Amino acid sequence: MNERPANPIFEDEAMDHFHDECGVFGVFKNPEASNLTYLGLYAQQHRGQESAGIVSTDGRNFNNHRGMGLVADIFTKSDIKVLTGESAIGHVRYSTSGESGLRNAQPFTFEYAHGGIAMCHNGNIVNAQDLRKELETDGSIFQSTSDTEVLIHLVAKSKAQTTKDRLSEAISRLAGGFSLLVLTETRLFGIRDRNGIRPLVLGKLDESWVLASETCAFDLIGATYIRDIKPGEMVLIDENGLQSFQLFESTQPKFCVFEYVYFARPDSTLEDVNVYQARYQIGVELAKECPVEADLVIPVPDSGVPPAMGYAEASGIPFQMGLIRNHYIGRTFIEPQQSIRNFGVKLKLNPNRKLIEGKRVILVDDSIVRGTTSRKIVEMVRAAGAAEVHMRISSPPTKFSCFYGVDTPDAEELMANKMNLEEMRQAIRADTLAFVSFDGMYKAVGKPQADHCDACFSGNYPVSIDKPRSPQLSLLRFFSRRP
To answer: Are residues 294 and 159 in the same domain?
Structure first.
């Protein structure tokens, strides 16, 4: 089993960010199904960099290949050739439930009384532990620690006559936020939780139907975006085309607003909102709400770029790329023998001293989590000669943990949970600090707050959480327990 690099510098940086959840992709009846799935996962690599997998079917048998690492490193041409068949699903993973390791890499495949089935999902089933205990008491044996496997066992134990009904029965027992793809020898299912917390979009490529977490996957393969799967909807795709079923009598849309702030690729459109435009407009609102006299607006790349551009336009202050990001950092590196101040941040970002020196600078970032990275960036910009450093954040203060498919620190580790605004400003050593308001954020998105999950900012969880934290090992705890 491959393990993460045990590098304390990388670990410290990883613990100070919300991490992309997972991404899914599926295609039904296309002679290049596996290759298209590979490309669909490649386009969604930002949603998970731990592991990836593809399962294909030729109508009789399943073929699968999974591995740890990035999509381009896991799949070779020969791997894709082995993944024969005209239908396939794929997954890129960042562990939010279950340990990091190959046994938890998706999609999962299994055989049961009704044939073969493959499954992958993006999100988190918050009652997975209770369901798992119930299933284990009844004799179920689990091969992974992933919450996805709970759903597999529920389907296998169902007495319903069709796969559709077995899935419907199983889904009715799940709580949380998830988008799910299920592949049988002859059918492809796409399912979204009753609140639509996690994204799932439908597209068409010639005569083939495709499903993905984001529309950017469709752009790469030349597919046409049709629509978003609705909250609580199941789509069934087979030789007869596409059928839609509503699994719940009532649904309340609660799409994750942080997809617009950070997670999704800026060229994607989700819930009819272009992500880039939403981020840009958040910057516009931030400038209106939190003006400050300055000489330059500088983004913390990459997610800070669109809101910084919006801030610059609305404020009339010049936009400059004063922080340059290194996109070619490997999983390991040779550390210097002598300690270098803020070395971890410097590996990723470097200030352009000629631009910054003597200037009053506005730094625009997407969020502050634990605050250590923000402080290091502020210190680095000051060391480059900035006269003043003002921090502007394109989301409200992050005060609460996410339980719906995003790996976050426990609430008590979040800076905004334990400090007021002035205390946060002093902690990160900025001259001023300000966050966009809820009203500003939703005005920029162009949709009402009532239709979104913003629990990480507000503490209003659309699905009740019985326990303060899942007993399953989160990535952040994995890091904190390393020697």
So the answer is: no
What is the chain's percent helix, strand, coil content, to nearest 5?
35, 25, 40
Cβ contact 444:284 at 8 Å: yes
With contact defined as beta carbons under 8 Å apart, do 245 and 224 qualify? no
Domain count, the chain: 2
Two tokens at 281? 């407009």
Distance CA 420, CA 52 (A): 40
Long-range CB pairs of 329-337, under 8 A, 24+ apart, other chains included: 331/4, 331/5, 332/5, 332/7, 333/7, 335/7, 335/9
pTM, two decimals, is 0.89
In one-letter notation, the amino acid at residue 189 is F
Strand partners, 211: 26, 202
Q: Is residue 462 part of a domain?
A: no
2 within domain boundaries? no
Q: How far apart are CA 96 and CA 2, in angstroms?
A: 18
Please check whether residue 190 lies inside any domain of the structure.
Answer: yes
d(CA 319, CA 334): 35
Q: Is-catalytic flag, 453? A: no
Tokens representing 351 are: 């200030």
Helix (H, G, I), strand (E, B) or coil at 236: strand
Together in a domain, 235 and 318:
no
- For residue 227, the domain's CATH number is 3.60.20.10
Residues 245 and 286 in one domain: no
**pLDDT digit of tens for each residue in the chain (483 aa)?**
333 334 444 445 555 666 556 999 999 999 999 999 999 999 999 999 999 999 999 999 999 999 999 999 999 999 999 999 999 999 998 754 445 568 778 999 988 888 899 999 999 888 888 888 888 888 777 777 777 888 888 998 889 999 999 999 999 999 999 999 999 999 999 999 999 999 999 999 999 999 999 999 999 999 999 999 999 999 999 999 999 999 998 889 999 999 999 999 999 999 999 999 999 999 999 999 999 999 999 999 999 999 999 999 999 999 999 999 987 766 555 566 556 666 778 888 999 999 999 999 999 999 999 999 999 999 999 999 999 999 999 999 999 999 887 777 889 999 999 999 999 999 999 999 999 999 999 999 999 999 999 999 999 999 987 654 443 333 333 333 333
Range of the domain at 222: 8-254
Residue type, 419: M
Are 141 and 33 members of one domain? yes
Same domain for 425 and 340: yes
Q: Residue 366: beta bridge partners?
A: none
Q: Is the residue at 360 inside a domain?
A: yes
Cβ distance 305 to 298 under 8 Å? Answer: no
